[in-house]
Amino acid sequence: MSAMAEERRQKHCSVVLPTESMKAMAESVGVGQLQEDSCVALSEEVSYRIKEIAQDALKFMHHGKRRKLTTSDIDNALKLKNVEPLYGFQSQEFIPFRFASGGGRELHFYEEKEVDLSDIINTPLPRVPLDVSLKAHWLSIEGMQPAIPENPPPATKEQQKVESTEPLKVVKPGQEEEGTIQGKGQGTTTPDGKGQCLGLIRLKPRSTHELSVEQQLYYKEITEACVGSCEAKRAEALQSIATDPGLYQMLPRFSTFISEGVRVNVVQNNLALLIYLMRMVKALMDNPTLYLEKYLHELIPAVVTCIVSKQLCLRPDVDNHWALRDFAARLMAQSCKTFSTTTNNIQSRITKTFTKSWLDDKTQWTTRYGCIAGLAELGPDVIKTLIIPRLAIEGARIKAVMEGPVISNIDKIGAEHVQSLLLLSPKYPIPYHHLFI
Amino acid sequence: DTSLAKQKTDIKTEPSTDGFGNNNANDGRVLSASPGSGSSTGSNKQTAAVTPEDQQTLLAVLQFLKKNKLIESVEILRREAGLPENSLDPKATESAGAGSGGAAAVAEDQPDVRVVLSAYSQQGDPTLYEVYYSDLKKFIETVLDCHRAELSQVFYPLFVHMYLELVYNNHESEAKAFFEKFSGDQECYYEEDLRVLSGLTKKEHMRGNETLLDFRTSKFVLRISRDSYQLLKRHLQERQNNQIWNIIQEHLYIDIFDGMPRSKSQIDAMSGSLAGEAKREANKTKVYYGLLKEPEIELPLDDEDEEAENEEGKPKKKKPKKDSMGSKSKKQDPNAPSQNRIPLPELKDSDKLDKIMYMKEATKRIRLGSDNLPSVCFYTFLNAYQGLTAVDFTDDSSLIAGGFADSTVRVWSVTPKKLRKVKSAADLNLIDKESDDVLERIMDEKTASESKIMYGHSGPVYGISFSPDRNYLLSSSEDGTVRLWSLLTFTCLVAYKGHNYPVWDTQFSPYGYYFVSGGHDRVARLWATDHYQPLRIFSGHLADITCTRFHPNSNYVATGSSDRTIRVWDVLSGNCVRIFTGHKGPIHSLAFSPNGKFLASGATDGRVLLWDIGHGLMMGELKGHTDTIYSLRFSRDGEILASGSMDNTVRLWDVMKAFDDLETDDFTAATGHIHLQDNSQELLLGTYTTKSTPVIHLHFTRRNLLLAAGAFNP
């Protein structure tokens, strides 16, 4: 209490302009040698009047339905007092004062640049600002806020995070377990179950991810389009996944769809579908409103599968499964970048996995390629510490395959790709001679 | 300064001259009784608290008028105030606080500063002020708990008056010390006033400072139980603390009541205004809050209608009962004013058609409730560059008007029907005036567009209102005028001048023809569209009038103000009939419930308060918003209250539950000491956040769809 009072007293403490300002202003209008007494009297008077005008200006701000005070508010306040407004301060967005200090003096000044008139005349006209227009959207439909781009995302990332990390704290609208106020935020009314659960141990609420009929339809359409044959439709669907703010309720379904999809299609060696699924992962990661952390345990294995799986297509010698590996490796690197924390250690775990299988002599060339690609994407540090030291050994291995007797064409192709990958590994100068000793 | 003088005389002469002028001008169709004459007789009876100061101010005004050679006004004022030629009749002056009509308005408006401040000339030893104050503080801290809250109310007004006395008598350093020592003790809701006070450190500053004059001209009203009051009185007399006793006697109005002392929360609920609480008798006048009888209009069941219904694919089950609406309104509401208490314009054929449309729509209205929430359609103004200052919808929701900081007024059509102007006079001559579709033919198809811009104001447009018949639009602006625009020609018809200062709000009467405006000059004016001078002047607020609203029966007007009070005015007499206190910040929105019984108000403090107009009681408090509430609207059947705020949310409240839950008995009704429950969270039915768009207007369509509007502020 006393602290609060103290703070407030600070606030009310009447601030008065320094007398030096008075002197400076007097000099600027040609009055030299202002007496100290007059300065004090003037500064008190001026400070009081400035405060008065500021108070009136606030009124105009409130009636203008703004949070920012503008120069026009000050002008209007001056007009109220029958004072001529200050012309020339027409900035809408900011007050153009600059601060400077030096020689123990501090100064706020209005920067007026000298402008050559011919420059103004010769510069092309700026674009005309857009005219006011009116746009209607549904803020709420029968109490529920639709998840459309015009509305803020239904659950912010923060909320989604709280929900996944501390499920006890969160009550989903419409769930009875804790039928209290929080749920009403979304406009659903809850039966009054408050009395019953008082005193009971709080149980983790059942996570029922019920989807509305519309959401189910949407899910069906989107997943079909994503793995369907029409490329235009797929682009649209991916665009929707990447931008729609209201997907968080469907996220568990998408996650399962992707992980199951990868599992099945790896077995069937269906390269096209795997690529489509990886593009879905990319779209999900691009959506700024989704809190993906909760679903990494399903998504990361799927992605890693697409990087290192022995076989991803029916005809490994012809099909370009390398592109999929590259793409998935980039995805992996991206998710390491965004999701890796000291607690989940994604990056180090992934790095270990890649290194381990790369070091294994029995590892197939395809997997070998994936491991290197995955590591290479993780950044210069990883390349420096893990790839470069092994270049000599790897070079020898490639040489053995390339120059030795042709046992298997597939091996040869794999070795070729590994070689070009190591050569290509961009930006980081890899000493070539390692590969060709 | 001349403009100020002009303004003063302007206000003073108007109530007298226009009253008579109107009589002649229009055969009793308009309000005709002079507001002053009606009230002066009545108010003589209620001059319980006549003080020498009121007389002083009145005399000062008379002197001022005489000095400026306004003999006629002097005569009128003297007659209205009942002052004889040259003597002081103590009975004749009016109590200023209750705002009793025209004459009081004159007396209050701009009292001569010297006269007003002279009361501070008597003074004690400046060094002892701190001692007096802390002595009282110590005393109040030691009294019984039940009295402490009540007695603590005197701290703030005492603090202010003691500080001002010190400043007035040039004890600058003592004043500063006094302020620093005790300003921290004051209730947080006086923060803003304290800020104003803190800047005021010299006698010269007091001149022309409105806040100051308010403290002085209007006595700060406190409600204290008899027991607590006795305690205080005894203490002060024992201690011979005359300084404080004098201030209490002179500057405070203590409204003593018998019964239980109020609790801290009860007091906090009602305090916060610039001049304390409302006196109890200020809210005793009978208010006819009932609705007027609807004119009986037969609902024609033409084929067209049925076709339309079938087109929509809905089989017509029930035929709308012909007199379902009529029968309800046949019974005269006992609380309703007589039908012609305020002369209302006669219904035109087009109005009748509109009424029929209204009734048809009403049959399709969705019944709202806590389990049946309305849908919200949001109209976002894009590229407004922080310039949108006011919005209004027509009652049938077909048009939107926006007022902008760049002085323009824009109208949009939100239906496929485009906005068209009437043809030029030359072209109109060519039209066959007998044809059935003459109203269609007069429109110029070439001018059809979705929106129209109207230029005329020379400052930001702060208030905007459509006429009920959709033919006119009103706008009020910083330039001091209210303009009437035609929506047939999209030109300005009249500029109503009178306010001279920014006009913050204006609204058409629900029956058209009349409108109300209020602004920085602290005066609300009632106008008729065909008169260039106001018919009534509602004066009594102590600071800017920030919002104005007509009662659904058009007999009353509510105004909200920066002095943190709401006043309800009788259009017939011009008297203030209700004063509601309790807000802790300037009031920016008001809404009457459709049945006319309740009023909701929203302020910068983010709270919505609900009021019972008939009993003059606070009914509830809705907490949840975190910023200024710029818009409030009841659903068409009054079940749900929607509020829109600067905090980018629209919230829906279960007001029926709020009214039902409130426990009132005879005692609370008589004293106004209600126990407010803190149940805002239970009453909140929904919160809908926009993407960075403050909600500045709300409107329920005739079918109970909620429309909201605001400008996107990236």
TrEMBL record, chain A:
One of its GO terms (biological process) is RNA polymerase II preinitiation complex assembly. Residues 146-194 are annotated as: Disordered. Residues 180-190 have a biased composition (Low complexity). Gene3D superfamilies: Histone, subunit A (1.10.20.10), TAF6, C-terminal HEAT repeat domain (1.25.40.770). Keywords: Nucleus, Transcription, Transcription regulation. Residues 15-81 form the TATA box binding protein associated factor (TAF) histone-like fold domain. It holds the Pfam family TAF. GO terms for molecular function: protein heterodimerization activity; RNA polymerase II general transcription initiation factor activity; transcription coactivator activity. One of its GO terms (cellular component) is SLIK (SAGA-like) complex. It is found in: Nucleus. InterPro entries: Histone-fold, TAF6, TAF6_C, TAF6_C_sf, TAF_TATA-bd_Histone-like_dom. It comes from the Eukaryota. Belongs to the TAF6 family. PANTHER family: TRANSCRIPTION INITIATION FACTOR TFIID SUBUNIT 6. This is Transcription initiation factor TFIID subunit 6.
TrEMBL record, chain B:
It is found in: Nucleus. SMART domains: WD40. The keyword Lipid metabolism does not apply. Residues 32-43 have a biased composition (Low complexity). Residues 16-26 have a biased composition (Polar residues). InterPro entries: LisH, TFIID_NTD2, TFIID_NTD2_sf, WD40/YVTN_repeat-like_dom_sf, WD40_PAC1, WD40_repeat_CS, WD40_repeat_dom_sf, WD40_rpt. Residues 322-333 have a biased composition (Basic and acidic residues). Residues 1-51, 85-106, 299-347 are annotated as: Disordered. Residues 299-310 have a biased composition (Acidic residues). PANTHER family: TRANSCRIPTION INITIATION FACTOR TFIID, TRANSCRIPTION INITIATION FACTOR TFIID SUBUNIT 5. Belongs to the WD repeat TAF5 family. This is Transcription initiation factor TFIID subunit 5. The gene is TAF5.
